[in-house]
Amino acid sequence: MKIFYATLDRTLYFLLFIVLAFMSAVVAANVFGRFVLGVSISWGEEVAKILLTYLTFLGAAYAMRDNAHYTFDFLVQKMPSRCQRPLRAFRWLTVMIMVLVLIYYSGETTWMIRDWIMPSTGINRALVYGVAPLGLFFMFLYAGRNFVSDMKTAQLMEEKEVVDI
Q1: What DSSP string runs through the chain?
Q2: pLDDT tens digits, residue range 85-104?
Q3: In terms of CB atoms within 10 Å, which of 20, 26, 29, 61 comes out highest?
Q4: CA-CA distances (angstroms) from residue 76 to 38, 91, 132?
């Protein structure tokens, strides 16, 4: 399983790097063309929006990898260790259920717009919208890994608290 997640980590990192680099180049070229040369790239804005969508959903998955999404866990941290474990489990199960719901509805939306074509690039919109269920799927995988890790950490904290007493 470690090899799977290591490969996923490297792949996501590489994709995010490529998407950000290409988006920066397209936007910079469009700005240069518009303000210096007086002409803009006809497809530049559309491609930048597509890449921003990819950056958003793949970046959200990468943030889930590092458990970097915002959470309010002040109360959980102030609870005794034996109470923290069920609350943390509830948190991760809620996240995973909501991500599954979002995967379903984003997949349904992607399927419904599969015939729509973007005007400037001629790209099928399903290729753009399809990154949502993909990124959410990666988020689900990382949330599952974080859930298991969090439960192991909480169990160790409980055992340490019992030993300290």
Answers
A1: -HHHHHHHHHHHHHHHHHHHHHHHHHHHHHHHIIIIIS---TTHHHHHHHHHHHHHHHHHHHHHHTT-S----HHHHHS-HHHHHHHHHHHHHHHHHHHHHHHHHHHHHHHHTTT-B-TTT--BHHHHHTHHHHHHHHHHHHHHHHHHHHHHHHHHHHHHHHHH-
A2: 888 889 899 999 999 999 99
A3: 61
A4: 57, 10, 31
- Band (81; pLDDT cuts 50, 70, 90): confident
- Count other C-beta atoms under 10 Å from residue 25's C-beta: 11
Distance (Å, whole) CA 82 – CA 2: 29
pTM: 0.84
**Which range marks the domain in which residue 43 is found?**
2-164
Number of folded domains that form the chain: 1
Cα 133 to Cα 41, 72, 78, 101, 161, distances in angstroms: 30, 26, 36, 10, 41
Report the alpha-carbon distance of residue 88 to residue 143 in Å, rounded.
12
The residues pairing with 117 across neighbouring beta strands, listed in sequence order, are 124
